[in-house]
Here is the input.
Amino acid sequence: MNALPHLLNEEDTERSSKFGCLRGAITGLIIFAAILWVIAQFMPNCDEDSKAVAYARSLSQERLKKLYYDMERLASDESLLDLCYEEKPGETFPEPFSDLQVLKIRPQMANIMVQGCFDHHVYLRFEGFAHKRSMQQQRQIVLSWGERKPQAGEQVLWKEQTEKKPDSTTRASSR
Here is the structure.
């Protein structure tokens, strides 16, 4: 009879030990999730409702046009192949970019990184540079955001206005 209480104690100890491991694992997961949540609160947002997208959309058509031609001029200069302006504490971007609130300006890659968010970004993409015209005919600046659909998207912010040529199929009536 003395052996039976001893066996029950071993079973209780084993159950208690397994439950203690499970409780520790759950506690660890909760702490890990809490840490991730706190970190996420301080990460920048690169979705459509972000401050970076709102900032890019707030640039005037006149400023976007000037920005396009400044980027195109720098992108066509082959001596500046590795040119990349990056935001650095206490420094400003050189003219003609000093007024911009962005992270990186890369003329050769034809883009400006407005905001970076771990593995996705908010970009201004420049299309139709004269020296690369065969790839993209339309001169335009495209804003892109997010990582993948449905949060990811893009919007043309500026497009070069071209004069419409008369349609050759339309003929004046001879009344």
